[in-house]
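[Meeting: bench + compute handoff]

Bench side (C.D.) handed over the final construct sequence. Compute side (W.E.) agreed to return the predicted structure before the next meeting so the bench team could plan truncations. Sequence as handed over:
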Amino acid sequence: MKQQTEFLMSTADTIASPERLPLLQLLALTLASFLATANETIPAGLLDQIATGFMTSEAWAGQTVTLCALGAGIAAIPLTVLTKKYPQRNLLLISLITFSVCNLLTALSTHFIFVLCLRFIIGLATGLAWSILATYARSMAPPHLQGRALAIAMLGIPLALALGVPLSAW
């Protein structure tokens, strides 16, 4: 815990100024929260294409969303506890790399069960990312601006929910 606190404090000291928010860094976290949420929900707009491509029902194709959500729900608290000793920036990068690799493998896969396993792994990475984003955003801002920093970083979630599924369906 001490190591994580020291890391967060050193990050906050180098990024935050007493008068303003580190907007560019917070927008990077906004993008990360957008990607984490979009990764979970985009298949909902593609269920008929997924079902056709894998020759399965739309109900089974919907399990791509379900397993991702399940992984995120299962992972958030345990992964937060297990990884608290590690630098948050590195863990967030690992989450984003996991999204990328699993999405690439999903795009190349011809086996639906493998895709379901990948979607669960994406969910685990999503749970980890969500647990990191809030703490990391707050650590970047001075105490009186931490609420704003959190709001900016988490803006990616409603954007992904509002835009991700419709754009994927389009």
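W.E. noted at the follow-up: Residues 7-14 have pLDDT under 50 and may be disordered. C.D. will use this when planning the next construct.
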